[in-house]
Structure formats: C-alpha cells, structure tokens
Protein 1
Amino acid sequence: LSGGPLQGVHAVVTAGPTHEAVDPVRVLTNRSSGKMGFAVAEALARLGAQLSLIAGPVSLSTPPGVKRIDVQSADDMLQASLAAAAQAQIFVGTAAVADYRPAQTAPGKIKKSSDTLSLALSRTADILSTVRDRHPALFMVGFAAETESLVDYARDKLRRKQLQMVAANEVGGGRAFDVDDNHLIVVEAQQETDLGHAPKTELARALAELIAARYLALNPS
Ligand code: PMT
C-alpha cells in the first residue's frame, strides 16, 4: 500500500515449516501452519513495505500486495532467503525451519521390513546466521519457539545470531503452532515488550509497528 511509513523499504519474511525428504513419499517436518508469518508479511505490507514472503509448504492464500516464493526444504529456503535479502533492508524469520535433514534421501520408497528403522540426520544451515553474515546492514528479526525459559533463550538467540529483535513465543500444550492466537514477547538488547495474548493478526500488526519504529529510528529518511 502506498503512503505508509515503510514505503520504499523492502522486507523479507520467511514462514511455515520446511519439508526434508526421507524418500519420494515421506518427509521430516516441524509443526507450523504459516499463520504467524503470513500475518507478519501482511502487516508489514500494510505499512507500505515491499514484501517478499518465502513460504514453506502451507495451505494459506497469499496476502494482498505480497510477492510469494514457495519452497520445500531448509536448503531451498536458505537459497531463496539469500537471493531476496540482497535487495532488502528488513528480514523477519518466522519459519519453523527443520534443524536436521536425512543425511541421504532414498531414491525409492523405503519398504517396511524390520521393526525399527534408523535414519542418519545431518544439520541444516542456520538461515538467520547465514543471511546475517552476508548482509551485516540488514535489520533482522528472529522468532524463538521455546517450551521453557523463554526470554533467556530469546536473549541468547539475539546475541548469538546478532539480531535486532527476537519475538519469543511459548510452545507446547497446544500453544502457538497451528492455532489462530499467540502470545509474543519481543526481546531487544535494551528492553522487552510484552505484546500480550491476542489473535495472530493483531500481534503481527503490533510487531510490524515496533519493527517500523525501530528501523526508522536507525535509518531516518
Ligand atoms: O506457523 P504458525 O502455526 O502460525 O506458528 C508460528 C510459529 C510458532 C512457528 C512461529 O511463531 C515461531 O515461533 N517461529 C520460529 C519457530 C522456530 O523454529 O524457532 P527456533 O527457536 O527453532 O528458531 C529460532 C529462529 O531461527 C527462528 O527465527 C527460525 O526461523 C530461525 N532458524 C531456525 C533454524 C534454521 N535452520 N534456520 C533459521 O533461520
């Protein structure tokens, strides 16, 4: 939309899970519907930002005014993120990226033969850290999904991944994943802002406004 405070700013949002192929019919994945990320992309676009939304496999429609790039695996998401980040000023990682993928993808369907089956897994690259290394000037926001010590882990991610902000949400017990509401606490170097428990669309608007305020304070036009 024209005329918003983020007009002329390009933002990238990653959303949803990734699928890591075990064989042609099976995948390893994380819980994530993409709702939080799609809402953040829509809210930033409403503030005038030009949006690239990098979406894992989800069944959601594309928010208005947003350029959507569909990906499957963590590696696809990394490549799409690096390409989009080259033109961007703001990067928000809401995706629930698989931390491990099968070390090898079987070319044919794995047959049921023994009672147990072991899969060797290898680590995927960390998208936020890789994008940060290549693009040190980006304003970067990560998410933290934790079952305990939420703010402490979020603060640790903020420092380790050199982010400007981490939006922390508690998961487990039916919270955050898949549902329409969430509770977000935004952790920054000097402060914490509790955005409360609300529909994801509302939290996304509040988060987008905070991102815009901080970005514009650092980059006055
Ligand atoms: O999609 P919904 O159903 O609406 O649910 C929303 C959500 C709970 C998935 C979302 O709000 C959320 O918390 N997303 C991050 C989930 C996650 O995987 O968190 P993490 O603590 O494992 O990862 C921390 C950060 O590093 C995240 O910004 C993640 O995108 C990023 N990451 C993680 C792994 C990896 N290989 N590369 C990354 O960039």
Protein 2
Amino acid sequence: MAGWPIDPELVIQANRQRSAELARDYESLGERLARRGLEIDSITEQVTRFAVAIPTWGVGTGGTRFARFPLPGEPRDVFEKLEDCAVIWQLSRATPTLSPHFPWDAVDEPAELRARAAVFGLGFDAVNSNTFQDLPGQAHSYKFGSLAHTDGFVREQAIAHNLECIRIGQALGSKALTVWIADGANFPGQQHLTRALERYLASMRVIYAALPGDWRVFIEHKLYEPALYATVIADWGTSYVCARELGPKAQCLVDLGHHAPTTNIEQIVARLIGLGKLAGFHFNDSKYGDDDLDSGSINPFQIFLVMNELVDAEVRRAADFAPAYMIDQSHNVTDPIESLIASAQNLQRAFAQALLVDRDALAEQQDRNDALLARETLMAAFQTDVAPILARARANKEGAIDPIAVYRASGYRDRKAKERPQELSGRSGIV
Ligand code: PSV
Ligand code: MN
C-alpha cells in the first residue's frame, strides 16, 4: 500500500533474512501438529483473519495518578494517533481498526478522519463516550456522576454527549457505542443504590432508542475506581440485567481489568455467550486491579482460557455471538507502539493456541468426568509454541516476521520526536 508510515522495503528485507529459519520452524511445527491430526496451514489461515482494535488513547503514553512520563514524539492529535496505529497495523497485520474516544478524538470533520484512515486500510470499531471528566466550557459537572446523576440536567448533558458519539460514529463507519460510566459512591450512604441504577437505566433507554438499526451499545462494567465504595455498573450481573432490560442491541463488554483479582473471567465470558449478551472485550492484563498492563504480560493462561471459550462458541456457532475485540491499556514505561504490537501478538497467540484444542477429545473427557485428561487436553494446546504460525500469518499479509525489530530499525520514533515537538503539560492520569 502506498503511503505506509514505514518503508515497505525495510519489511521485505528483514523478512528475507528470517524466511529460511521461519520455513524450517514452520515445517517442524507442521509435522508435530499433523501427528495430533491438525493441519497447520488451516490454523494459519484462521489466525490470519484474527483482528483486534487499537484504542486511540493507547498510542499516547499513559501514566498513573501520580505522574506521567511523556515519550518523545507521542501523538498530539487523532491524526497523529492514526499514523501510529497505521504502524502497528502495517507490521502486525492484526489491528485493522481503531476504537476512538470522544471528546478526546474530536475533529471538525469526522468524514475526513475516516478518509485519512482508509488510506492505510484502517476502519473504526466501537466509539467510546466520555462522561467521566469535565471539559472546559461544559455546563454541568460530572463530579457526582453522569447518566445516573441525581440532577436531571446533568443526565441530559451526558445523554446528549452519547447521542453525539453515535452521530460521529456513523460518520466514521462505526457500528457500536461503548458506554462506561464512572458513576458511583465513595462512601456508604452517599448514594441511594437502587435509585442510582434506575436513573442509569432511564438515561440508557434514551440512548438505546437513538441507536441506528445496525448498531449495538456495549455496556462496560467496572468493579471500582474512580468510585471507591460502590460503582453503579459494578459487575457483569448488573451489566447483563441492564442489557436485557434495554433490548437485543445492548450487550455486555468485558474489560479484563474490571474484576476482583481472583474472579474467574472465562466463566463470566461463558455465561455471557450462553445468554447471547457478549458484546466484546477490552483486553489488557493486571496483577492487582485495573492495572491496564499489556495483554498477555502477566497472565497469558487467563487470556488463553478466555480465547478457548470464544473459539468454542465460534465452533458450535453460538447464537448472537459476534464479539468485538479491542485493547484497552495504559503504557507507562514502554513505547506504546511496541506494547500494542506485542499485545496484539499475544492475543493472536492465545487465539492460535485455542484453535489447537482437541474439542472432540475434550468433550468426551468432560462427559466421562476425566478431570485429569481434560486438563491435559487444554494444556497440550496452551503449551504449544505457535510462534511460527503467527510469523507466517504476518508474512502472508506482508507484515513483519519480527515486527518489533523492524519498528526499532525503522527509526520511526526518532523521526516523530523531531516532527512532533513535545507539548509541556502537567497532566497525569490514564490518558
Ligand atoms: C475505564 O477504566 C476504561 O476501561 C473505560 O473503557 C474507559 O473508557 C477507558 O478505560 C479509557 O480510559
Ligand atoms: Mn475499558
């Protein structure tokens, strides 16, 4: 494609150097998989089709509530974010869409943004609304909530923003709105727990009614933060009840970081699939809370178990199953482009491993209550090194066999550091 941010010749040359080694590794893995009755090219073909959306906010350096350490050359507006996303897409070939956030990504002409993205072959996944912070000139504050606020004027303002997001999303070619609200209470007694949810639902009904026919709304739950005592949409149960109340176009989005550390997330995923209400994911990884660490960097087994449920649902053609895959991470100490490439790869790896699960054997072992062998069947898939499949999938689409190496060799970050002089802002926090 003309206009790639990284010279395609660099990718071709780097791939040439690695192609003989990859061919040997691929052949050897193919032989081993064949012994298990698996055809490697068909797995590669399925992996080639794996796609996950990049969050536009993810390409800027993240931070904690203590500090943010900006990286030279980080994007200053959504057009520069788009360029960074194009690098990730060019090298990984697994990230063909962006998930934008408004008003952070506000532009005068959304159609222009769409056209600029299309130059790289990029499209738009779910649009995310933001009623969790105040912006200059805003009439009403979200300090005490938005869609569930006690004051009807605040709720109206928050509803209007979501309707605006739908309008922008339509211009971008998106088909879904993700609604995460920070509403909740910091102290027992601060909020009437039942009425807060009723107010939320009443607001969401207005938003739901404005959805175009082929759109969905994704309800994103979160256990805590910034509300530290009780969050209005705290868990998948509340999210499910709201989605059911609203109707078929409302589904539940699972952000992996939005649960207590010991929660069995793959079971939640299985429940939502069974109920026909799984909207999709915000993938990330965590150790303690909503850490927003790189997908697969802490608990790759959990991601594999989630993918296992997803592949299982796909294989048995579960009803109302069309999950949207997005990443939602905060990159505090790495180059976000590298982190997002590695994360997309880790998700693709878990997907490939899940494709290797011997589902007939597993079903039979489960029916016989053979706990040990059932576990071994899953582990055989998880413990397979699928790196040659991932590399081949990328190379087949003119991506890089070793994307991080090509990215580093390209000098992209240094170039951007010169082109995008740093803005001195004291901002901290997640974006
Ligand atoms: C909240 O923690 C969240 O996961 C929501 O998806 C927000 O929109 C996103 O992070 C962006 O910061
Ligand atoms: Mn999220």
Protein 3
Amino acid sequence: MNQAARQNMAFFRIMQIGLTILCRDRSSQPGAEPAPIPRQAIIQAIIRYGLLSPRAMTPLFDDDPLPPSCERLEEGAVLLRGFAAAQAPALVEEVARIAQAAPFRHLVTPGGYTMSVAMTNCGRVGWVSDRTGYRYDPADPATGSPWPAMPESFLNLAASAAAEAGFARYDPDACLINRYIAGSKLGLHQDRDEKDAWAPIVSVSLGLPAVFLWGGKRRSEPVRRLRVESGDIAVWGGPARFVYHGVAPLKDGLHALTGAARINLTFRKVF
Ligand code: MD3
Ligand code: FE
C-alpha cells in the first residue's frame, strides 16, 4: 500500500470511529450496542461534507465508482471525469458496429509516416489523411461508401457534454474514432481542419487510461500531462480551440470493456 492509500485508510477509520461515537451518544437506549455504520454511508459523509475531494483519494475499495466531477483546465476547456461512465459499454458496442462497415485503418501522413493510432469515422464526413494532405471526406476512401451515420446516442452525449462546458446547441458533423494499443501515440498537434473555429471538440475516452499532453497556443509553450480514464470527457472550444495537444504512448494493460485498447471519440463541427 502506498502512502496516499494508508492516509486514506487512516482517515476512513477516524471517520468511522467518530460517526460511531456520534451515533452512540444519540442512541435512546444507552446500553444498546449501535449497529456498525455501513462503509458506503461513511464514504458518502466524506464526500458530502467536502472533507476530501473523492477524486483526490485512492479508491478505498475497487467496486466504489467515483462520482463525476468537472474540472476547468483553462478558459474554454473543461475535463468532465466520469461523465460517460454509465454509457461506456453501449458506446464501445456502437464503435464495434461502426468498425464493421468502416474498418479501423492506419492512415499515412502527408510526410509519409504511418500513424500508430488506428482510425475510423462516423457522421456526415470523416477525417482522413494521405500523401496529398488532411481532409474531411464524405466517403470512406477504403470502401468508397459514405461513413456510417452518427448514432443518436453519440450526438446526445456530445451535446450534453458541450452544454456542461458552456457550449449550447452543439451539433457535430463528424466523429473521428481513434484506437490505441500499447505504444500508440499522437504527437503534439492542433486540430485546424474545421471551419468553425469556436465550436468545441468533444473527446470521449473509453477503455485503457491514457495521458493527454496539453500545451499552449504555441508549440514552444510548456506541456502539461493529464491522466484520463474510461468515461472521461474533455471539451475544448472558444479561446482554447487551438491549443497544442497529443497523447503519450499508451501503456499496456487490459480493460474489461476494450481489452488491450483505448478508444477515443472526438466530435467535430466541421462546416
Ligand atoms: C485539448 N485525439 O484525434 S483529445 C485527435 O485521445 C486527438 O485520441 C485525442 O487529439 C485522442 O485529433 C483526443 C486530445 C487532447 C488532450 C488534451 C487537451 C486535447 C486537448 C487539453 C486541452 C485542449
Ligand atoms: Fe487533436
């Protein structure tokens, strides 16, 4: 057990003893032994009274899901941890369905490098790259067919996350779906192939955790590292729309939803 976990355990015990004494004092029958306080009630008390931020604690028990939180990264950018946790299994299922019609593939950059992240799309247009450049294409170059339609559940999730971040009536045209395995990474870049420079990009993380690289408006600015987990959503638009960002090489692992992979959905207003 690490130091943080030991501190959490100690804190938990103190809370338990304190609440037990409190309940005993209030008990109408002085002789009666009070029932032990359920651990969930203690955790709720810790959270409710803001004694510790639940997300700052190492989980006490593996089966305690963390409540969602909203963290402002900078003007125009928020991180909504756990926002999509409940829908995550259904989202992963939709991705599998989309990938049957439009298979994941490793795109080649204009510079001739094959990307380590595998990609596919759904929506009115899809983001593609080849030796001629980057573009949004209404057809999947691999099949010549239109991209699979954006599922209603994707649209609703993206719109409610955007609204939470202050962007009303978000109606994305495209959803780029990125699949990472151990070692896959995305170098520092800006997303600038979209006409609407204010509408946010909404990013949904599924499966294995990753580290977001989060820089400034110039490539030379320092880069922060931000761990994201399955169910976390990041929204960035307005003044934060053109920050440099990327994803550090994925660590290997296994996730109940996605196995050895991380999947990221990025919603974009293209036109
Ligand atoms: C913006 N994909 O496909 S969010 C992309 O995880 C792309 O696959 C990421 O960037 C992915 O173009 C999705 C990356 C990110 C991370 C941190 C940020 C964007 C950020 C911090 C602030 C603003
Ligand atoms: Fe990007």
